[in-house]
Each structure stands twice: as C-alpha cells, then as structure tokens.
Amino acid sequence: MDWMKTNISTKYILLPKKLFIETLGCAMNVRDSEHMIAELNQKESYELTEELSEADLIIINTCSVREKPVAKLFSEIGVFNKYKKEGAKIGVTGCTASHLGADIIKRAPAVDFVLGARNVSKITDVVNRKHAVEVSTDFDESTYAFGEYRSNPFKAMVNISIGCDKSCTFCIVPATRGDEISIPSSLIVQEIKKAVVTGAKEVMLLGQNVNNYGRRFGASEERCDFTELLQKISKIEGLERIRFTSPHPLHMDDTFIQEFASNPKICKQIHVPLQSGSTSLLKAMKRGYTKENFINRCEKIRALCPDATISTDVIVGFPGESDADFEDTMDVLEKVRFEQMFSFKYSPRPQTEAADFEDQIDNALSGKRLTRLQARHTEIIDEIMDAQMGAVHKVYFDELKPNGRVSGRSDDGKLFFVQGSEELLGKIVDVKVIKTSRGALDGEVLQV
Ligand code: SF4
C-alpha cells in the first residue's frame, strides 16, 4: 500500500493498489479473471489498470490447451519482470499453473505465486504469501460466493460447474481443472438475478460440459438436470437471453433439444464440438459418440429449429488419422454446414493418453489438411453470410465501438455493427442487414 504525503499538513492518503491482469484461453478463464478482480478489489483494495508500469500486482491467467500458450508464458514472464515497477508482484494462475505448479517458480523465480484453475477463491491468500503454490485439482469451490465484477455490465457469464469428468485422450482439462462438480442451482439463479439488477439482459452459462449438469453436486443433495436448470433460469424476470457453452454431443437427448428449440429465452445458437468426423478416431479420442450420432443430433436441432446456428471444434492430425478419416471430417462439414468452426492441428499435451499414441501425424500433413478444411469452411461461411443481405434480426447491443458504431449479437449469435450511440446499449432492437462480410454484418436500426 502506497501512502502519499500532502503538502498542506502531515496527512496520509491511502493510494489504491493497481492490478494488471492478462487473460489467455477460454470463457471459463475470463470468468475466473473476473472472480479474481472482484476478490482482490473487495478484499485487498486493488483497482484494475491497463498500464503494466503502474501495476503493483501482475497476473497472467494461463491456458494449456495447446503447447504454444505454454511456451509463450515464460517469455512473457521475462518481459513483465523487465518492465514492472519496483516491488510489483507477478502471479501465474489458470491451467498452466495447475499442470506445472512449483516448476514455474523454479524456472522463473521472479514469479511470486502460482494458483491453479480450481483454486481461484484462494487469490487473496496467495497474493500475500511469497512463493505460494496452490494447485490442488480436488479443491471444491463450487459453493464459494465470489464478489461481484463483470467486464461488460450488459451481459453476464456465470459458471454452472467446475472441472470435467470426461477423459478425451487429447485433452489436458481434466488434469488441470479436476473432476466435474455442478454448482447448486440456487447459487446460479441468485448470481444471475444480481447481474440482471445491474443491467445484464443476457447470460452465458459456462461449464466444460454444461448439458451434463446435475450429475454430481459438492455438498447438496439437489436433483436438477440441465434442462430443468434452463427452465429455472428462464423464470428470472428481466433476463431475456440465455446462451451456454460448451455442451457435449453425448448429452444431447431429445428433451434437451426440445427445450433448446421451444424455450423463447434460449438463444438459437449452439456449440456442438465434433473434434473428428471419423467414428474410429472418435473412439480413439474417447468422445463416446459416432459420426452418425453426431449428424443425427445436428439434424434434430435443424429440424426443430431451422434458424439455429451450429458451431463446432475440430482437430486435424490426431494420431492415426488416415486420409479416409479426414474425408469423414470433410463429409460432416458438408452435411452440417457449421456457421462457425474452431479448428486446430492436434497438439500433444502432457498428462494425456494420446500424447503417447504411436503413429503421430507429420506436421506438414496436418497443416495441409487444416488448410483444406478451413478453405472449404470459408466458402460455406461466405455463402451463409451473403444470404443474410436484407434480413432482419433482433440484436442485443452491448458494446460501444470507435467511429460512432455500436456492436451486438443477434439471437443466433451473428455479430452486428450499426451506427449509433450508447443509447442503444442494453437494448434488443430490430436491425436490417445492409452489408455482409465473413465475420460480421453491418445493419441499420429499424426500430428502437
Ligand atoms: S469434454 Fe473432453 S474435450 Fe471437453 S474439457 Fe472434458 S476432456 Fe476436455
């Protein structure tokens, strides 16, 4: 804590400490960062800064899903250590903290503490303990009520579970975030109600497998599955839009898809992670479904909800992937025509089965397959977006942009930009598409 001496009389003013936080990776990490900001502000009087040089505390909230972010971590620690102000602390949190633990301090002694992805509620403890390492993946903070902070007041992200019970052979998440525990629905509803009071009309429900919700709670004996949770949340007054990520194809039963299609508050945008179109590879990945199952679920969604948009994740170059396997992935792309696709080359991760699989695929071949997949997907996206010309959507505006523009998303998740002012923020209005592009649509507001 810095004190500043006034020149009128010997009076001291408490200067707030400054926090600089960098968040890498997924929406769960963004929400974990919001939790840390809230705890540090409310219990340790830290205020956010974008200026590294004025920070008293620097946090890097890390991601481990691929090798690249991990390699980047140590060079970043070096840069932060070089440019930080004297006496400032550096903390490493998130998934890389969970899997590297104390090794981070061994490799980079400038790091003051290491806090794993399942120990976020301990942030105010470790910040005051030199070289503290808290990386347990058994720690249960599913009922911990974090302080309030949201990076965008118009939309709330709310965790509904922590960890993951699956064992996909390529994925490091179970090793860094631990077993899956659902957060009691009363805490979730309470948190959303608070967010609505402060201006959020939209909520994004977060979990590694949201539609597996309710399988296990920490303390409570509650019985509530995901469809029931959605119904409970839909009753919250003032909440108009519900989004969620990420569901698992394995838990997409007809009841869930029916609720998705018929519940007016649920946004008609759904993420269905495929990973591979080949049934034999899906088996080697331990995904638990086949190519046919996957297509069947997507067809069911499209049948009940023709305007819904479907996004997905795809890995190319998984060990053992043959040309025929890859053609299966291309075939699913043709059949489902995803409106959005996150696609990557397979990256062997520590503490995962597939890292030890034989027949690892040559990097150049993976690269060639990724290029072909993304090129075909780009063609599909262009067709989908061009067809939007003149369409009218209900858009929820939540961000001011430079040049007198405001951005928001339609119910089906498309990104919109219009000319307008902050008056539009927090409103759902009719917008007509006047210009299309691959990643976003320009529109004109029809009626506020
Ligand atoms: S479901 Fe599979 S891919 Fe998703 S977080 Fe769990 S282990 Fe990873």
Q: Can you walk through the features of this model?
A:
Helix 9 (254-262) packs parallel to helix 11 and helix 11 (291-304) runs parallel beside helix 12. The strands form six sheets. A six-stranded parallel sheet has the order 4-3-5-6-7-8, with helices on both faces. A five-stranded mixed β-barrel has the order 17-18-19-21-20. It starts with a strand and ends with a strand. With 448 residues, it is an alpha/beta fold. The protein is built from 13 helices and 21 strands. It has helices at residues 27-44, 67-83, 95-100, 103-107, 123-126, 173-177, 185-197, 226-234, 254-262, 279-284, 291-304, 323-336, 363-386; strands at 2-5, 12-15, 17-23, 46-48, 57-62, 89-94, 113-116, 132-134, 155-159, 161-162, 181-182, 202-206, 241-245, 269-271, 309-316, 340-345, 392-401, 405-410, 415-419, 428-436, 441-447. It binds iron/sulfur cluster.
Write a compact overview of the structure shown.
By secondary structure, this protein is an alpha/beta fold. It is built from 13 helices and 21 strands. The protein has a 6-stranded parallel sheet with strand order 4-3-5-6-7-8, sandwiched between helices. Strands 17-18-19-21-20 form a 5-stranded mixed beta barrel. A 3-stranded parallel sheet has the order 9-12-13.
The figure for the number of domains is 4
CATH fold-level name of the largest domain: Rossmann fold
Mean pLDDT reading? 94
Kindly provide the name of the CATH class of the largest domain. Answer: Alpha Beta
Judging from the principal axes of the Cα atoms, what is the shape? Answer: globular
Count of helix runs:
13
The neighbouring-strand order within the major sheet is 4-3-5-6-7-8
List segments where confidence is low: pLDDT < 50 over at least 5 consecutive residues: 1-8
What's the count of strands? 21
CATH homologous group name of the largest domain? Methylthiotransferase, N-terminal domain
Which sheet architecture does the biggest sheet show?
Answer: 6 strands, parallel
The share of residues in extended strands comes to 15-25%
Bound molecules: iron/sulfur cluster
Could you give the distance between the termini? 47 Å
Calculate Rg over CA atoms: 23 Å
Structural class: alpha/beta
CATH architecture of the largest domain: 3-Layer(aba) Sandwich
- Helix percentage: 25-40%
